[in-house]
Amino acid sequence: MGSRPPLGTGGDLRRRLVFHHVPLAFASAVVLVLFMRLPLFDTGAYPHGDIFSATIPRERGEGGAMGHGGEHTGPRDHDGGHTGPSPDEIQSRSFVRQFTVATGYVALGLLGLTLVIGPANLLLRRRNPVSNYLSRDVGTWAAIGSVVHVIVGLQVHGRGRISDFLDYFVAPDGRPWLNSFGLGNWTGLAALVIVVGLLAISSDFALRKLKARRWKRLQRLNYALVALVIAHAFFYGALLRTSSPFTLLLGLSVVAVLVGQAVGIRLWRRKHSRTAATVA
């Protein structure tokens, strides 16, 4: 085992640009367009348990604050009545919601891919190095997708102001939101911190400074990242819309990662048991 070069170990920048970054960017864009254009993935077609319009989460009003029990607290007209959103506002908000979901699932798919590259090397009887450029490049695009997902998602319940950002995590009285909406946002924030941190150390410079063992230990935060992303999807009502293809994709992604890791662990143990037997 190990006679053939492992997947994704070529460190030449031009080669990585041609064979890693360009295909990953193109594939991400294609999947994103499919998620946005195909009626099958229309988030408005699944009102029961929809992540924006139903039980989880309760939608905030235009003013940024959530009313008692989740009632909307939108702006009022001069007579004291509530003014409804214009058709253009409804269409724009629908697009933002759809784009938020789509970017989230693109990032999830890329994240899952980073965790199956190592097992794929073992399955193909190739060496599994400490640093894998393909995993790092896929992780870069997963981080980009995650950041875009968060930035766009912050526009759903507000207008991008700092106060709107805080409303995702704390109630008007200063207490943290601990309902499904709040927990979904807290897990999402923790996942964002980890993915940005992993992106920051995904370089040869960081590998040299941190040394292989410490660098690899930090990279294992990827497993915590996956758990947080799954929790984020759960709190945002993934299990309440079982008829949605997005929920099916979430389940398939989880199964693929679990199977890949199980196969990788089994092959790793078999390899090391053979090595120990040979030495003995």
In brief, what are we looking at here?
The protein has 280 residues and is mostly helical. It is built from 10 helices and no strands. The longest helix is centred in the last third of the chain and has 35 residues, at 245-279.
What features would you describe in this structure?
The structure is a single chain. With 280 residues, this protein is mostly helical. The chain has a single domain, classed as Four Helix Bundle (Hemerythrin (Met), subunit A), CATH 1.20.120. It has ten helices and no strands. It starts with 12 loop residues before the first helix and ends with a helix. The model is unreliable at 48-80 (pLDDT under 50).
Question: And the CATH topology?
Answer: Four Helix Bundle (Hemerythrin (Met), subunit A)
Distance between the termini: 19 Å
How many strand units?
0
Shape: globular
Strand fraction band?
under 5%
Shape-level CATH architecture: Up-down Bundle
Number of domains: 1
* SSE succession: HHHHHHHHHH
* Main beta sheet: none
Radius of gyration: 22 Å
Percent of residues in helices comes to: 55-70%
Would you identify the regions where 5 or more consecutive residues have pLDDT less than 50? 48-80
| Sheet/helix structural class | mainly alpha
CATH class designation? Mainly Alpha
Question: Which keywords apply here?
Answer:
280 residues, Four Helix Bundle (Hemerythrin (Met), subunit A), 0% strand, single chain, globular, mainly alpha
